[in-house]
TrEMBL record, chain A:
InterPro entries: AMP-dep_synth/lig_dom, ANL_N_sf. GO terms for cellular component: endoplasmic reticulum; membrane. The keyword Transmembrane helix applies. It holds the Pfam family AMP-binding. This is Acetyl-CoA synthetase-like protein. Residues 139-242 form the AMP-dependent synthetase/ligase domain. Gene3D superfamilies: N-terminal domain of ligase-like. The chain crosses the membrane at residues 19-39, 171-191. The keyword Transmembrane helix applies. Keywords: Membrane, Transmembrane, Transmembrane helix.
From TrEMBL, chain B:
One of its GO terms (molecular function) is metal ion binding. The keyword Endoplasmic reticulum applies. The keyword Electron transport does not apply. Belongs to the cytochrome b5 family. MAPR subfamily. One of its GO terms (cellular component) is endoplasmic reticulum. The chain crosses the membrane at residues 20-40. It comes from the Eukaryota. Residues 60-162 form the Cytochrome b5 heme-binding domain. Gene3D superfamilies: Cytochrome b5-like heme/steroid binding domain. It is found in: Endoplasmic reticulum. This is Cytochrome b5. Keywords: Endoplasmic reticulum, Heme, Iron, Membrane, Metal-binding, Transmembrane, Transmembrane helix.
Amino acid sequence: MAGVVEQLDSLIADLLAGWNIYTTLLLGATAGFVAWVIYEAQDADTHPLLLARQAQASYVRQPGESAAYRSPEVPHGYVLRSGLGVKVPGAPLYSAGKNGDLRDIWRRVTGEIPLEKNVPHAPASTTAGPGTATIMTVFGSEGATEHSIAELTKEISVIGQHLKDHGAKKVALYLPNSVEFLAALFAAAFYDFTPILIPYNQPHPTLIELLAHTGADSLIAEAGSIPLADVSKGVSRLRSVVWTVEKTSRHMDWNEVPEGIGGKIDVSVWHQLVQDQKNGKPELPQGSGDAPDIIFLWQEAPGKPAEVVQFTQQNIAAATGALISALPSPQRISPSDTFLPADSFTQSYTLCLTLAALFSHATLVINSVAGPGVDLTLASRKVAPTITVISAETAAKLHSTTTASVTGGLQKLAHSVETKSLTAGRLPTDSFISRVNAPTRAAIGTTPGKLRLLFVSERAGHNTPPMSSDDLSDLRIFAKARVIYALTAAKVAGAVAQTNIYDYRRGVTPANKHSHFGVPLSSLEIKLKDTPVHKTTDDGPFGEITVKGPAVAGGEASLGVNGTFREDHTLAYI
Amino acid sequence: MTDTSSPPPAAEVLPRSASPVTPINLVLLSLLVFLVYLRLKPAKQQTLPKPPPPTVFRTFTPPELFPYNGLNGMPVYLSVRGRVFDVTAGRNFYGPGGPYANFAGRDASRGLACGSFDEDMLTKDLDGPLDTLSDLGDDQLEAMRGWEERFMEKYLVVGKLVAVGSEEAKAAAAQK
């Protein structure tokens, strides 16, 4: 016994006898490493088990379909979100609020309906009263110019009254993203006519066919963008046209009507109508009947056949409310945000996010350079947006151009260091290492680093380029912002499903295929119906994606694509 | 005195130059390498175990419902007014050996309406038509409705009960 202890003692003594300067250095390095690991340890942005099971499945399913999957915001047994929860001033503090429609959104923009209290980043209430949203437009290479909300209210009332006087029932809007587009949309809600949103840049024959098919009897378009003679020949019901003219062309006379049309079509010019009523007071009608529906066109590309979808105001309000509440409250759109839609307003996802930004009193920056394949660097050239919406084509283009510029071992090392941070669940920030060796960033906006949220929309059934989970993770590093991937479809206002804002996981889906789409929005529930090829079994749900809820045109619709819910209950293509 | 004050002999052994390869250095180096490996190892994704698959809603006839009485590892079902409830969570009451075990796997409507667990509250002939409850009074129907509401709040509806030979039974059998 004593011998063993003595042997052990001499062993340890021999070991420690070899202590020298290198030993001290190694010990210092180990202690420093452990101290550094403890110092820089941070919690993940969200608990990883919250990402391990995201949507909620019902406990019972009907034969021939899967269980119904819902967002955790609306558990089974509760009603789905059906609107914006608009509380007029004077309503009790904890009332649910009514659903609301576009008119309530505009009343919120003007400040007639104030923001709720306790909104983060809201300006302190001033004696001027409740704040308003801010709307700016970017013209070419000039910076952004702000519009006065009172002037816009006057434009809405003038245009709406003009079209109502001419007996317009269905007004086609063939405009790029512009403030006139939004003004005409709100005018339709106040003055009771149905707007038809036609995607811009159509070839003329397709435009004429779409106008005839949807039964438009009025048209608002950019002056000089369409041949009026051909359009009036092709669209027999057309009765009035309103041209919008850009500032530099306003000296020309746009009131001319080509020969052969005679007195059939009444042509007016937007800025002249507004100027004629310059001294009148802006008065919007206060009626509270149902506002009319909005017609969207779901089209793969300009020139291709389009699907006509009619959304009610409740569809749009439900989708907008669901998009607002899908973000956790610290991340929601707030009055200190600058929102730039880089996709066209004729997509319901972009339009609903724009309405959400207006509803939250953010600064909306409108750029007519917006559409499915636009380059985000060009679209954000003169502004510094904090939130933006892009299509999957734009995201793919951004990813491929920025990846091509990542050359050299150091940049790749910096990229992989930040990827490791993302995989650990944290968004990489400006740490010492990233300042010393910065990874490649995409050039978005005038001030780099202000972008905080990037919405990427995938259109179901339209052959859009796939964004895999690795691509999305790279985009988070390139844009230094959180990225949300959303699935949108024809008959659903807003989106069908959206990824969790804190879900940075990589490699969860195979590369080269679409990443998963996260949880359904709170305004709908998703079921997968059996097809001859894909059936739901005890192993897992497979089938055709079917949605039901207040945000779906007609109440219930099938998307025409097959999907599954993965182990973590997120929606994915098969 | 002269010889004893000679200067001390020069050190015969030079101080050994510090060598990096000593046992303690190797131990510490391997410890450091191990810690760095733990740090750089890709972390495993956290997952939750798979939940049980959802129950398929089924159209039952009384003979098909009969085995679901908790014996042989079967779940416990009972039926009220045509709706089949999964009461396995209340096994202590409705399962084998419980006070209401008579209701398991049967149509419990009459028993709940009259507040009795006797055998004669259950339909004897499983192949015959369902109990129409037409001879019950208003307060008994009221009691049954109260029970049904409690069941709707507490338990899951997993099917419906139809008579043997009825249209729905034939349709359900054809679908299988």
